């Protein structure tokens, strides 16, 4: 019986594979032919239409249209070919058997994209994102339903679910699975930790993840879940779903993915191409500053900010907290309201030492002549007036310059060259000012920000915060905490940096963002809907207190994932014990308990672990709390571990191997082995450090070692002995003392 099913399935696979092969060959032939035609047409066009005036112009534009159409067709077919080639490598991964409306049994095969019988147009493989495919991701057989694009539900009787592992036309595994969670394919995938970069999870999406992935574009979602619950994976599959479901109105350029770092963007960059989709726009919050033209400042990065705050004075910490608080956001909004009536700061505009337009004059225009308009409209009206004035001055100067040059008796060039010289002089005199006016740079944005800090709450302390902020801005430096208000002001006051092409924004690690950061992103992308993903416990920033989800809960749909797929059960249990967090259900495999190693020979022990635990092509990471500790350890270890690589913020390409980096940088990534090299009370003395340790522990998929040279941090010392093994490795002791 078993044999027969296998044979039947292998025969079916052979048929599909043959059809796919033929389809690919046909597409290749067609494309080859089209390519020849396009080249021929282009050559003909360039020969025939070297003059495109008069009669010729009409003919030329008609020909251009035909050529464009043909080229579009060519691109579409190339895309189809790419999809078919991906499909050919593994045509499908699932099947559901349903009873159709005529009461007949029907098998629907599910794969990465739709494949139809070329003659009959029958669907042979359903795209995993097609409405009916959602039935595959329900963890049940029996009566179920799926939603079609017009919102209606279709009831279906699911008689069976089958999963496959297929390589080209070879059936490797097959099993019937009624209940999805904990099934064999998933377990098989979870055992396979040797991943280069992040992989798609399309064959094993779980029903709670499926719900998030298939939500409508218009739903603004916050997805919360513990480490390893698949938030990033879900984000990527959701993007692929949106690209499919809204293919008429959205494309890769309508979706923006904001993630913690360039390195992380590289780590996830294979998922969409693997699913046959183009990568969407990737960015980091830091890079968004250039979209509002703040990049002429030296802007502190998130990582630089963390390092600075590790050793900052209590005042600097309080200032950071104040600028990210909801209280300040409210104050800033009130301040912006207030400048509509009075107090908007402007710059005097000068050309050299000469006054071109005074701040007083601009202010008068702002409050009297254009006082009835919105702020950005008033500014744009003033811009028009100022540009007109420049044009008049330029015209006058042009005449004068011309006269001056023409009066020179020696030969200084042809008329055209003289005109060029005049233009250069005008550009030199007015270019910078013109640019400033174009960018509405006559508004003193720095002053607005500084004033907003002491607006309403005008005590000595806020005055000093305001004062010291003014000093840093004067040095053309923006601290990380100043970036959100500056971006927000720039976007809202000037109203000229809105990107309306972005329809959906996905933000990973949302716990790292403040409410104001989000408002700034919103102001820059007014047409976008959101999928935000995060974990309120993975706080690696020394000052970040996550409350964003609560703040947004009224306007966003909150969805919680509660199972974790990344680590062994033992690591997940240990990680949960750090925060006394018992809600994380581990679906991982079993493995060794994490090991706490007390040692007075740190270098020797790490070297030993690198030799015994690291296998080529694996990922093994050594983590310390801060950059300085990593650099020192790297210098000390490098002679013994030559392959060791220090990962810094400059690293843009994700790699495996033997790595060392600060703990906060490891967030979002996963490694087979994690070695925390400084699990000491002095290094993790703050209450907030418990969250950092939680995040660090959760990076390990298989093995976790925590090395301490003295006393364990509070957050680790309280963990019950059942969750770890302990080793005492004190040099001088003959044998290490293990239990
Ligand atoms: N449904 C699934 N099937 C197979 N693997 C899964 C599934 N969901 C998650 N995983 C795997 O679990 C691991 C963790 O996933 P991911 O990084 O997306 O989680 P996360 O919630 O973003 O984690 P963190 O918050 O810790 O960064 C990855 O290796 C991912 O491939």
What would you note in describing this structure?
By secondary structure, the protein is of the alpha/beta class. Helix 11 crosses helix 15, helix 17 packs parallel to helix 18 and helix 20 runs antiparallel to helix 23. The protein is built from 24 helices and 27 strands. Strand 5 and strand 6 form a beta hairpin. Adenosine-5'-triphosphate binds next to helix 3 and helix 5. Keywords: ATP-binding, Helicase, Hydrolase, Nucleotide-binding. InterPro entries: DNA_helicase_UvrD/REP (IPR000212), P-loop_NTPase (IPR027417), UvrD-like_ATP-bd (IPR014016), UvrD-like_helicase_C (IPR027785).
**Distance between the terminal alpha carbons, to the nearest Å?**
50 Å
Associated small molecules = adenosine-5'-triphosphate
The number of helical segments is 24
Average predicted confidence as pLDDT: 90
Helix fraction by DSSP (H/I, runs of at least 4): 40-55%
Proportion of β residues?
Answer: 15-25%
Largest sheet: 8 strands, mixed
What is the 3D form?
globular
Q: What's the total number of strands?
A: 27
Low-confidence stretches are 734-739
Q: How large is the radius of gyration?
A: 31 Å
Helix/strand class: alpha/beta
Q: Give the strand order of the largest sheet, numbering strands 1, 2, ... along the chain.
A: 22-23-21-24-25-20-26-27
List the helices and strands and how they pair.
Layout: H1 2-48, H2 55-89, E1 94-99, E2 105-111, E3 115-116, E4 123-127, E5 142-147, E6 153-167, E7 170-176, H3 184-191, H4 207-213, E8 221-224, H5 231-245, E9 255-258, H6 262-267, H7 271-274, E10 281-283, H8 285-291, E11 298-299, H9 302-310, H10 314-323, H11 326-339, E12 349-351, E13 354-357, H12 359-369, H13 375-406, H14 415-438, H15 445-453, H16 460-474, E14 477-478, H17 480-494, E15 504-507, H18 515-524, E16 529-534, H19 548-552, E17 557-560, E18 563-564, H20 569-578, E19 585-586, E20 595-599, H21 602-613, E21 619-624, H22 627-637, E22 645-646, E23 657-662, E24 671-676, H23 689-697, E25 700-708, H24 714-717, E26 725-729, E27 737-738
Parallel strand pairs: 2-4, 8-16, 8-17, 9-10, 9-15, 11-14, 15-16, 18-19, 20-25, 20-26, 21-23, 21-24, 22-23, 24-25
Antiparallel strand pairs: 1-2, 1-6, 3-4, 5-6, 6-7, 12-13, 26-27
This protein binds adenosine-5'-triphosphate.
């Amino acid at each position: 019986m078993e044999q027969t099913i296998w044979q039947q399935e292998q025969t079916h696979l052979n048929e599909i594979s043959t059809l796919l092969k033929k389809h690919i060959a046909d597409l290749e032939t067609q494309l080859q032919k089209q390519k020849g035609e396009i080249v021929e047409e282009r050559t003909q066009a360039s020969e025939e239409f070297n003059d495109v005036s008069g009669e010729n112009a009409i003919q030329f534009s008609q020909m251009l249209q035909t050529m464009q159409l043909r080229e579009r067709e060519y691109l579409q077919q190339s895309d189809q070919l790419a999809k078919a080639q991906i499909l050919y490598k593994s045509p499908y991964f699932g099947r559901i058997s349903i009873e159709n409306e005529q009461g007949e049994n029907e098998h629907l095969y599910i794969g990465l994209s739709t494949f139809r019988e070329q003659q009959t147009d029958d669907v042979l493989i359903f795209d995993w994102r097609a409405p009916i495919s959602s039935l595959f991701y329900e963890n049940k057989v029996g009566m179920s339903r799926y939603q079609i694009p017009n919102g209606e539900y279709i009831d279906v009787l699911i008689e069976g679910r089958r999963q496959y592992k297929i390589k080209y036309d070879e059936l490797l595994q097959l099993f019937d699975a009624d209940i999805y969670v904990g099934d064999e394919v998933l377990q098989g995938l979870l055992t396979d930790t040797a991943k280069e970069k992040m992989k798609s999870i399309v064959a094993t999406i779980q029903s709670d993840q499926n719900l998030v992935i298939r939500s409508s574009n218009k739903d603004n979602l916050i997805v919360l879940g513990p480490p390893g619950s698949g938030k990033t994976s879900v984000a990527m599959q959701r993007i692929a779903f949106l690209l499919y479901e809204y293919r008429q109105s959205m494309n890769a350029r309508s979706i923006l993915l904001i993630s913690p770092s360039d390195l992380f963007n590289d780590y996830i960059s294979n998922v969409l191409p693997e699913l046959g989709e183009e990568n969407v726009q990737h960015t980091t919050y830091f890079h968004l500053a250039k979209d509002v033209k703040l990049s002429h400042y030296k802007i502190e990065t998130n990582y630089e900010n963390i390092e600075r705050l590790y050793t900052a004075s209590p005042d600097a910490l309080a200032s950071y907290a104040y600028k990210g608080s909801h209280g300040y956001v409210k104050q800033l909004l009130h301040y912006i309201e207030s400048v509509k009536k009075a107090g908007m700061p402007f710059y005097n505009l000068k050309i050299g030492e000469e006054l071109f337009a005074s701040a007083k004059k601009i202010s008068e225009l702002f409050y009297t002549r254009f006082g009835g308009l919105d702020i950005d409209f008033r500014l744009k009206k003033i811009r028009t007036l100022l540009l007109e004035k420049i044009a008049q001055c330029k015209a006058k100067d042009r005449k004068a310059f011309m006269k001056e040059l023409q009066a020179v008796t020696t030969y200084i060039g042809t008329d055209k060259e003289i005109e060029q010289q005049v233009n250069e002089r005008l550009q030199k005199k007015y270019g910078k000012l013109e640019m400033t006016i174009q960018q509405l740079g006559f508004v003193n944005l720095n002053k607005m920000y500084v004033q907003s800090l002491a607006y309403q709450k005008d005590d000595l302390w806020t005055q000093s915060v305001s004062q010291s902020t003014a000093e840093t801005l004067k040095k053309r430096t923006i601290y990380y905490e100043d970036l959100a208000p500056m971006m927000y002001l720039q976007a809202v006051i000037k109203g000229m940096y809105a990107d309306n092409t972005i329809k959906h924004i996905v933000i990973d690690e949302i716990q790292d963002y403040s409410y104001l950061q989000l408002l700034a992103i919103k102001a820059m992308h007014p047409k976008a809907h959101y999928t935000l993903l995060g974990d309120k416990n993975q706080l690696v920033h020394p000052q970040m207190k996550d409350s964003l989800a609560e703040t947004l809960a009224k306007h966003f749909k909150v969805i919680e994932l509660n199972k974790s797929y990344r680590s062994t059960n033992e690591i997940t249990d240990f990680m949960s014990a750090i925060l006394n967090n018992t809600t994380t259900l581990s679906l991982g495999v079993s493995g060794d308990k994490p090991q706490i190693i007390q040692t007075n020979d740190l270098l020797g022990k790490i070297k030993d672990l690198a030799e015994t635990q690291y296998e080529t092509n694996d990922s093994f990471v050594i983590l310390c709390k801060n950059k300085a500790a990593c650099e020192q350890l790297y210098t000390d270890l490098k002679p013994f571990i030559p392959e060791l690589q220090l990962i810094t913020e400059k690293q843009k390409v994700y790699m495996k191997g033997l790595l060392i980096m600060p703990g906060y940088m490891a967030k979002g990534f996963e490694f087979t082995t994690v070695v925390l090299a400084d699990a000491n009370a002095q290094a993790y003395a703050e209450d907030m450090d418990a969250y950092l340790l939680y995040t660090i522990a959760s990076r390990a998929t298989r093995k976790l070692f925590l090395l301490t040279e003295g006393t364990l941090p509070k957050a680790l010392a309280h963990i019950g002995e059942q969750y770890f093994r302990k080793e005492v490795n004190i040099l001088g002791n003959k044998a290490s003392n293990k239990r």
